Amino acid sequence: MNANEAAELLAHASSFDNRQPSLAAATAWAAALNDVPLDADAKTAVAAYYTTPPQDPNQRLWILPHHVRTLRTKIRNARLENFQYEPVGDETTPEYLARYRGQVRAIASGRIAPPTSRPALEGAPSKNFMRQLEARGWEGNRTIPDTDSEPLADAVRRSGPLGVQCPVCSAEIGFPCKGGRATAKHPIGKPLPKPHTARTREAVGEPQPTAEQRAAEEQRIRDASARALARLAAEENIPDADIVDEVAS
Fold this sequence. Notes:
The protein is mostly helical. It is built from 9 helices and no strands.
């Protein structure tokens, strides 16, 4: 707006706050609102400012240019709340941008009545799309059991070892494995950073070793430990080398 339009807006504001408009004030407001036109929304913004009471009842309301700019933008954005672009067939990108901006300006300014209802999506996936999903193993939406006969934890699984109960420490689904050593902070065992190997096998469906296989593995580890201890003991018992003094002939 120019100085004359700003003076008209200040005269409109003076009817609310009894200010004394001047040429200097009109020039300053025109500089602050140089990209805001003097239209019905600008005057409505002034009225909206004085419609809201101040937080301090003893405070005097005094509108400033930034109030006009902010409230005018809110008024125009409220008309665009349910806006939906109406395209035309085979439009190019420049045509789309021109039509989009034109529709936004027309509705924001109030020249065209804003939509009164929010657009909703209608219809369902096509039969071809559903067939493609089913061909890829989709079995429909997951349903929640109507009764407690099937625990929800059995119907909803998480991936990885935490998706099964640990066969070693009996850690429940979703909880980390526990060490066998209890502490004051962890009376039922300290959580382990990695799950037990048996729990990892259980998660991927690998068979668990039998009792005979576990016993053989434990015996193998004990034998290896015994051989290592024997080797260390033999190295400690190596006699010191005899030092022979060579006498010069």
